[in-house]
Amino acid sequence: MIFITAEIGTNHLGDIKVVKQLIDVAKTAGCNAIKFQKKSVSKIYSEKFLNSYLESPWGTTQRDMRIHREFSIKQIQEIDKYCKKKKISWYTSCWDVDSQLQMRRFKTKYNKVASAMLVHHKLLEIIAEEKKYTFIATGMSTLKDIEKAVKIFRKHKCPFELLHCHSSYPMPLEEANLNMIPFLKKKFKCKVGYSGHESSASNVCVPAVMLGATSIERHITLNRTWYGNDQAASLEPDGLKRLVRDIRLIEKILGDGKKRIWKSEIPVQKKLRQILT
Asked: Which of 174, 42, 18, 137 minimizes the C-alpha distance to 99?
């Protein structure tokens, strides 16, 4: 079965009620997991950057916006409890070592390496040490970047899956380059999924599945007009439902690749081949 993750990212706008609504959306659509991001804002951004001007619903600096969209440990505990109640998995993509270490207390089943963090080798070492199944996004990266990351995970014998990805929001469809999916699978001899940032519901994810993607990750939102860079590249509830429906149908259509005579064929076989007896 294709593993489908609904990426909440920062589309929750720092509102725990919105997170719970998005968890409900993902569960109803039939997703396997939800995901969001975790950052130690004061450690990964410079003071100059954080103090720079940015008008948002929460203030006039980068700091105002970024701190508002981060959850406390107490809030994450509430998310953890809610996901358990709804019986859906959750995990994070951490952008720094401190955040990754903080998340260990929750004992989630999966980890995620964001494309932005693919070259953060110290963080990759910390993640790989946990030996959790890890999704590794490969946007804005070279093959050499990917090779170094794969080497770290194999050194620690940590199970992983690469995610073909394009790091623009939204992604131009002509730059999807989905043939990278079978290429990466052959080159690195591992599972390869697809992390999509296009604005459409299924016209990229469906062919990705047909090309062998073993997982799909898509950003979700309650309203694409809300504040944030990711909103335009996200799916609203109806779009997510259609995507999951289409992927599950494609799985059935693709089948298992084993040749057989189907029960529905037998009457036709008896009728059309009787001339040979």
From this structure: 42
What is the number of residues in the chain? 277
Give the SS3 label for residue 196. Answer: strand
CB atoms inside a 10 Å sphere around CB 138: 24
Please name each of the domains of the chain with its CATH number.
3-276 (3.20.20.70)
Q: To which residue do tokens 């950052």 refer?
A: 39
Instruction: Measure the CA–CA gap between 68 and 238, rounded to whole angstroms.
Output: 28
- The pTM assigned to this predicted structure is 0.93
pLDDT in tens, 123-175: 999 999 999 999 999 999 999 999 999 999 999 999 999 999 999 888 989 99
CA distance 63 to 247: 39
* Cβ–Cβ under 8 Å, residues 216 and 244: no
Strands 192-196 and 160-165: parallel
How far apart are the C-alpha atoms of 95 and 100, rounded to whole Å? 8
Question: pLDDT band at residue 232, thresholds of 50, 70 and 90?
Answer: confident
Task: Dump pLDDT digits (tens) for 172-231.
Answer: 899 999 999 999 999 999 999 999 998 876 589 999 999 999 999 999 999 988 888 888
Average pLDDT score over residue span 242-263: 95
